UniProtKB/TrEMBL annotation:
The keyword Transmembrane helix applies. It comes from Paenibacillus xanthanilyticus. The lineage of its organism: Bacteria, Bacillati, Bacillota, Bacilli, Bacillales. This is Sensor histidine kinase. Its EC number is 2.7.13.3. One of its GO terms (molecular function) is protein histidine kinase activity. Keywords: Cell membrane, Kinase, Membrane, Phosphoprotein, Transferase, Transmembrane, Transmembrane helix. The chain crosses the membrane at residues 21-39, 327-350. It is an enzyme of class 2 (transferase). Residues 348-400 form the HAMP domain. It is a multi-pass membrane protein.
Length: 618
């Protein structure tokens, strides 16, 4: 608070030129910051979307390559159990004769090469029996006793003749080769596909043959090194040069097949988002991991059901925004410099006329009211100088006229007092005429005089804009009586007003102009039978009154001109203006005239005067 008061005091005492320069610079800075922030947000969103699409495409393409490879291997493995040569070799081999097993190994190795030898990505291919491992053992050797005790063999049994892929595992741990633990070798970690081979054979006579039931079925084992799968991701990492990028493939149980961190391969360290990813199967989302927001793109492989993913910190994906920030700062500095220069030039243009006015005011303080400022330009400042010169000239004239003005005010007060006596004089005069008519037995004339005097007295005593409806109707009855006397009782007037409305406040004499128009313009030419009906009722959203006659009516052309305002009726215009001032623009008049004659005026009043309108009236 103290700092705010200090800044407020400083701003209040600063020169106008300084205020203008600072405010202009602050305005430009604010605009640039807003635009820079918006541009930064839009750029970040677009860049993040592009990175997200790129990661998704890489994961999808890698999966498609792997799926195509594994589907091809799966198709070849489906043909292997019905290969006649393989059946013949396995069926005839003597498990207790080394020479027989060596001959069988050469033939089976040739058969495996026929099926899988053209695929350089397959690290090794074997057919294993409890007695012997058949296949090319140049790269690696799988001990049969270790294999048939391993999870790989159990997986082949569970899937009953279908090829199943086993996630990355440790060769030494899987096959019980513990003496190899701690020594580096190139097939330390593998991922393998295993399949129990239910070998069958149909001879030339059409007889179906299979291995004896008591004989253990051989198992096909195809292995890949993890670097084969990993290189698909590693190529993208090398090309993208994105820092902090990680990747991997994980099966549904959480076993890591491959990972950017080689130590994780073969372990069970599934990320927390894995279950959600398997539910979505493919896509991307952002997650907070170890306090950092990370973008994750993922896709489930069709052949194995494993989940491939690429993960990158969001700030690393947006590292290209650093240049945008630098350019924004430079742009802001340049704009501030230009703004300060423009503000200084503008301040000179604005403050120079103000300084002239300030000097002129000081001369006026000394009594010199004839000072004039040179007028230049037609803008607001030029207009201000012209108005100052006019004001300065008028001040001198006003000082001279001050005494005379006071005398005129006193004369006006005396005149107003005299005018207040006029209504009272007229009322006394009408009363005198009333008694003269009574003394001369002119009863009709005396009643007219009495009604006129009471009408005058009622009007002059009430100074308000409104009065009770009962007062207005009483005044109207006296007026109708006078007009009926003039037209020798050719006009009949009916009043059908809801008695509950008699106490409400209404605009003074709001019905009289319409009754007068009905008599003078609508019924004046009738010799008899003229009827005027005055009604009043409470509507759903207004208090309504109507004045209806059976006179000659109003032509459509004149009625249209009255409604459009092209032709104005002084009395009706006065009433409508007062109603709108008192109750608001939703209320007023509506004039209707039938084709066969007659006119109906509908007047809508509010239930209470509108407060805003009442202020305007006062």
């Amino acid at each position: 608070m103290r700092m705010l008061r200090f800044l407020s005091h400083l701003a209040a005492n600063a020169k106008f030129r300084l205020k203008l320069i600072v405010s202009y610079c602050l305005l430009v800075t604010f605009i640039i910051l807003i635009l820079g922030f918006a541009y930064h947000q839009i750029s970040a969103r677009n860049m993040l979307r592009n990175v997200q699409e790129s990661l998704g495409n890489i994961v999808l393409n890698n999966n498609q390559l792997l799926d195509e490879k594994l589907r091809d291997i799966h198709a070849k493995s489906e043909v292997l159990p019905i290969d006649n040569d393989l059946y013949e070799v396995i069926a005839k081999v003597d498990p207790h004769d080394n020479e027989s097993q060596l001959k069988a190994d050469r033939r089976i190795t040739a058969i495996l090469f026929q099926y899988f030898g053209g695929d350089a990505d397959i690290y090794s291919s074997f057919i294993l029996t409890p007695e012997y491992t058949y296949g090319n053992a140049e790269r690696m050797y799988v001990p049969p006793e270790g294999f048939f005790r391993s999870d790989l063999y159990r997986a082949s049994i569970i899937y009953q003749g279908d090829l199943v892929w086993v996630p990355t595992y440790s060769f030494a741990d899987a096959f019980g080769e513990h003496e190899m633990t701690g020594f580096p070798y190139e097939y330390e970690k593998l991922m393998s596909g295993v399949k129990e081979l239910n070998l069958t054979y149909i001879d030339e006579q059409g007889v179906f043959h299979s291995l004896p039931p008591d004989r253990t079925r051989p198992v096909l084992m195809l292995s890949f090194r993890t670097d084969y799968v990993e290189k698909l991701f590693a190529d993208y990492v090398h090309r993208s040069k994105l820092q902090g990028l990680t990747y991997g493939i994980i099966d549904y149980s959480g076993s890591v097949v491959v990972a950017s961190d080689a130590k994780l391969a073969g372990t069970r360290q599934a990320p927390a988002w894995l279950k959600e990813a398997f539910e979505m199967k493919q896509g991307s989302f952002q997650k907070v991991i170890d306090g950092r927001k990370r973008l994750i793109a993922f896709h489930q492989m069709e052949s194995t059901g494993w989940m491939s993913y690429i993960e990158i910190p969001v700030e690393d994906a947006l590292q290209g925004l650093e240049s945008i920030r630098s350019y924004s700062v430079l742009f802001l500095a340049a704009m501030l410099l230009v703004s300060a220069l423009l503000a200084y030039m503008l301040s000179i243009y604005i403050t120079k006329p103000i300084i002239r006015i300030k000097k002129a005011i000081k001369m006026m303080e000394r009594g010199n009211f004839r000072v004039r400022i040179p007028e230049h330009g037609r803008d607001e400042l030029g207009e201000l100088i012209r108005m100052f010169n006019q004001m300065n000239g008028q001040i001198h004239a006003l000082i001279e006229e001050n005494y005379a003005s006071r005398l005129r005010e006193k004369e006006s007060e005396l005149m107003a007092l005299n005018l207040q006596l006029n209504p009272h004089f007229l009322y006394n005069t009408l009363t005198t005429l009333y008694w003269i008519a009574v003394e001369n037995n002119q009863h009709e004339m005396s009643r007219i005089m009495l009604n006129l005097a009471e009408m005058l007295q009622t009007s002059t005593r009430n100074k308000n804009e409104t009065w009770p409806l009962a007062t207005d109707l009483d005044w109207l009855n006296k007026y109708v009586y006078i007009m009926s006397s003039r037209y020798e009782n050719m006009i009949e007037t009916r009043m059908e007003v809801d008695e509950t409305l008699l106490g409400m406040e209404v605009p003074k004499l709001f019905l009289q102009p319409f009754v007068e128009n009905a008599i003078i313009h609508g019924l004046a030419e009738r010799e008899s039978g003229g009827i005027i009906v005055i009604k009043g009722w409470s509507g759903p959203d207004a208090i309504c009154f109507s004045v209806e006659d059976n006179g000659c009516g109003i032509s459509k052309e004149r009625l249209d001109k009255l409604k459009s305002g092209e032709v104005r009726s002084t009395g009706m215009a006065n009433v409508e203006k007062r109603i709108k001032l008192l109750y608001g623009p939703l209320y007023g008049l509506d004039i209707q005239s039938g084709k066969e004659g007659g006119t109906r005026v509908l007047i809508r009043l509010g239930r209470h005067p509108d407060p805003g309108s009442a202020t305007q009236v006062s």
